[in-house]
Amino acid sequence: MSETTNQAFAEHAIALTLNGQSRQLNVQPWSTLLDVLREQLDLVGTKKGCDHGQCGACTVLRDGKRVNACLTLAVMCDGAELTTIEGLADGDTLHPMQQSFIKHDAFQCGYCTPGQICSAVGLANEGRAQTADQIKELMSGNLCRCGAYTNILAAVEEALPQSAAKASAVSEGGIDA
Amino acid sequence: MNPFHYSKPVDVSQAISLAGAASRFIAGGTNLLDLMKENIARPEHLIDITGLPLKDVRETASGGLLIGAMVSNADLAWHPLVEQRYPLLSQAILAGASPQLRNMASTGGNLLQRTRCYYFYDSAVPCNKREPGSGCPAKDGLNRIHAILGASEDCVATHPSDMCVALAALDAVVHVEGRGGKRTIEFADFHRLPEDAPQRDNQLADDELITAIELPPQGFVAHSHYLKIRDRASYAFALVSVAAALELDGDIIRDVRLALGGVAHKPWRDKAVEQSLIGQPVSRENFVAAAEAILRDAKPLEHNAFKVKLAQRAIVRALSDAATGGKA
Ligand SMILES: Cc1cc2nc3c(=O)[nH]c(=O)nc-3n(C[C@H](O)[C@H](O)[C@H](O)COP(=O)(O)OP(=O)(O)OC[C@H]3O[C@@H](n4cnc5c(N)ncnc54)[C@H](O)[C@@H]3O)c2cc1C
Ligand code: FES
Ligand code: FES
Question: Where's the 2Fe-2S ferredoxin-type domain (chain A) (predicted)?
């Protein structure tokens, strides 16, 4: 990626940690994180639904916090620690939230699922949801056009305590993230 | 999106020296990038302000809070001092956008988010806010979400923020810095009514950066409530919202703040009506009278007449909930 479309506009070199690995990238200022993940890095687990912050399909974790990759410029991720759906599992062991989505059959077409799962992991890190109503409110940034909400709620509800425990273990350095 | 140059200053003076008419600061990017993708904002240069040291929330000498412009909406809503002393602000922030967006969005950016008028967002049609002098299709078009107070012949757009409605009620002060130096702006004066220049949402100059928002000590901890009415239960902009706060002595109102969102080009306050409630007892009658007085000059459009009654009822409900402790 050394050539630029327009020589007047410089590419920028950024360094970040992506799913536990250090990466150096050259990005154009106007490339979103979502496009760089999907087009430049071939990490297509993160989905593009609306491209305008309205659906949550592009949710990834930035320094442990859930964000919309479609409204994030890649060039502004210099120094960030990013986790996408591809980075949640520990080798062949799925993250408890992934396992719970399978157990509860929390999807139909699956398009919203990576965003739902990353968002639910972010929710666990925040530690703000205890009741089903709180989970619903704090998962409202993730739309499911198939309407699989009942099972998504059940999956998140069950895995939340375990995900939260994992999150605090990671922040105390107990588990390799 | 059009191509643009990008720079990331490390201090405020550097950021200000880079600013100009063709540049934009970018913070969370949640509004600016959206508008750039729609080809409505076309900056030639983005100045990334996420590296500026504006991320603290600290207590002021007078007992208030000074909130750095780069504090995220999520961190602010869940900040212990805000939850304890300004629950109205926490509630309002948490009523807006989504958890992801609140993690990204900044305090300064929230004030400067632009209207959600569909015509403003549609670059194929005229819009005085987007292209001054081109006309306003909303006035005689689809105007269900538009203003009922303070609009002009040129523009009937509303300001979409929830957070700003609480900041207006709390008498916040905006700290800004530009090439001409620092100044503070009272929240009530920060946003503008459209008049004949709807392209200008607020009083900020091109080279001015919001550095902080200051909250005075009075947080109305015991009696405040933010009520947001929208088309779905969550993750939608307000049709009408009300920030209500009361200071009570028994059931006598000693101080009151009422700010409305979704009804005007800026968070709407009517100090004369607030004044008329002071010294009165808490009662439904008094709240109804205040609600009717605030909407006395409402000028609904073809599709938004419902907002007048809705706003009146929301005011009565928000004041009642505030009076009983704001937990609703
Ligand atoms: C799908 C969706 C739903 C939403 N729902 C709601 C809602 O229900 N309620 C609500 O209140 N909001 C809602 N929002 C809007 C959201 O709150 C704003 O987009 C956000 O607060 C903007 O902050 P930001 O830091 O991302 O701003 P940016 O997008 O980075 O910037 C916005 C503007 O502010 C300028 N700017 C930013 N910081 C500064 C500064 N310090 N000094 C000077 N200029 C600055 C930028 O140049 C730009 O013009 C929603 C947004 C989306 C996308
Ligand atoms: S693709 Fe990012 S929110 Fe829809
Ligand atoms: S499972 Fe199809 S969009 Fe959610």
Answer: 12-88
